[in-house]
């Protein structure tokens, strides 16, 4: 066994540090590995050579800043990850490798609110179909990231609010999917996964502090602080939809009055247009009409944007993020919703926090959460199993894990 503090244990730690940096970025040049890990160029070069010889990474010629460089990424044989995203009206599943390449992806409409069993039946079928499509056996799956549209109780692993998903009362999503697939499952709410997706693949790349605001039937925020998702001790951090805007306002499903969600959620937004546009509208349709010049839809989107901006201003005053990324169907409205958000931030946030903040739409669209589910597995999996075994060491057997993303 390696003695803590010995040369062999230090070398092992450096191997894991390099491997984690490559895994979370998808691919890095050796110079980028040195900058992100703080290791010397010579140490990185030796470690990369060792990992290449063991088949853990592949090295390909590339260029960086006009100079020749070598890009390091994990080997295709290192395993694959699966992402499962439950929305209120859809199910999306993706299969990817550790080099951040999505190998297969599929989405279908589903009423997730109605029945947890039906949702898991469909998820199991989709996962099996995509694995068959990509030609991978289930034993090559390192883990499954699972996103659900509600807070997860970190102590029990169950949905934290039955008012959000009444058909899921008493269900532990991670344990349920693990029993069906026989794979390690890591669970988080959809806003956190949206934040992780944009951080790794989208509008948050290169940042260490941001908030991802998802506006759908409800409103949630995924918070990234110092490069890590912040969940809070109970797993409910980021419930921005329940900031009180008007204590005499509409009753929210949480039992309080005048929550942000009651002013910007899809049901509220669509109700505002029933009299003028009739029933049957959807948020994507409202956005489409607004972009074509419909004055009523433009006004409603602007009003909703100002209310969202009030919540964003509160986040700025508390956490001072560098960037706020808007997700969900409403983000497709672009400046029609972003400009009002910025106006409210300028009015209600501390000036120094407002000046440092950029408010942008997500770049991943409806894929943010399922890509975040893939990234969740990559962030939670250990590195030791992918490393070449230390001389004389005994490798532990693999086990199935259920985690709430902590």
Any descriptors?
alpha/beta, 406 residues, 14 strands, six-stranded mixed sheet, globular, 14 helices
**Silhouette:** globular
Radius of gyration over C-alpha positions, nearest whole angstrom: 22 Å
> What is the H-and-E element order?
HEHHEEEEEHEHEHEEEHHHHHEHHEHE
**Mean pLDDT, all residues:** 88
Distance between termini? 28 Å
What percent strand? 15-25%
Task: Profile the largest sheet.
Answer: 6 strands, mixed
Task: Provide the spatial order of strands within the biggest beta sheet.
Answer: 6-5-4-7-8-14
Count of DSSP H/I helices: 14
Number of strands: 14
User: What structural class do you assign from the helix and strand content?
Assistant: alpha/beta
* Estimated helix fraction: 25-40%
- In terms of per-residue confidence, which ranges show pLDDT below 50 for 5 or more consecutive residues? 391-401
């Amino acid at each position: 066994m390696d003695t803590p503090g010995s040369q062999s244990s230090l070398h092992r730690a450096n191997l894991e540090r390099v491997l984690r940096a490559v895994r979370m970025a998808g691919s890095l040049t050796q110079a980028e590995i040195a900058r992100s890990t703080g290791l010397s160029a010579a140490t990185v070069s030796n470690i990369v050579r060792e990992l290449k010889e063991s088949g853990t990474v592949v090295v390909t010629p590339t260029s960086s800043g006009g100079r020749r460089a070598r890009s390091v990424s994990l080997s295709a044989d290192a395993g694959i990850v699966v992402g499962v995203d439950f929305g209120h009206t859809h199910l999306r599943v993706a299969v990817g490798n550790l080099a951040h390449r999505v190998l297969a992806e599929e989405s279908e409409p589903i009423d997730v609110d109605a029945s947890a069993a039906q949702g898991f039946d469909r998820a199991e079928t989709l996962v099996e179909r995509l694995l068959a499509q990509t030609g991978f056996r289930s034993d090559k799956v390192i883990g499954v990231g699972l996103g659900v549209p509600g807070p997860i109780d970190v102590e029990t692993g169950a949905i934290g609010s039955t008012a959000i998903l009444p058909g899921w009362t008493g269900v532990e999503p991670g344990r349920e999917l693990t029993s069906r697939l026989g794979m390690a499952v890591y669970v988080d709410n959809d806003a956190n996964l949206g934040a992780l997706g944009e951080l790794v693949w989208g509008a948050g790349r290169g940042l260490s502090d941001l908030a991802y605001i998802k506006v759908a039937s409800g409103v949630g925020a995924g918070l990234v602080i110092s490069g890590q998702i912040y969940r809070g001790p109970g797993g409910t951090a980021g419930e921005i939809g329940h900031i009180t805007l008007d204590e005499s306002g509409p009753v929210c499903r949480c039992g309080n009055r005048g929550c942000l969600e009651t002013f910007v959620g899809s049901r509220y937004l669509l109700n505002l247009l029933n009299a003028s546009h009739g029933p049957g509208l959807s948020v994507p349709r409202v956005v489409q009409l607004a972009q074509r010049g419909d004055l009523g839809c433009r006004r409603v989107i602007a009003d909703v944007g100002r209310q969202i901006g009030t919540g964003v201003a509160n986040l700025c005053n508390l956490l001072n993020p560098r960037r706020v990324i808007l997700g969900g169907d409403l983000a497709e409205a672009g400046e029609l919703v972003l400009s009002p958000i910025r106006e409210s931030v300028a009015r209600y946030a501390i000036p120094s926090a407002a000046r440092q903040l950029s408010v942008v739409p997500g770049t991943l669209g409806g894929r943010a959460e399922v890509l975040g589910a893939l990234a969740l597995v990559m962030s939670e999996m250990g590195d030791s199993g992918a490393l070449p075994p230390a001389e004389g060491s005994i490798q532990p057997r693999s086990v199935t894990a259920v985690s709430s993303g902590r």
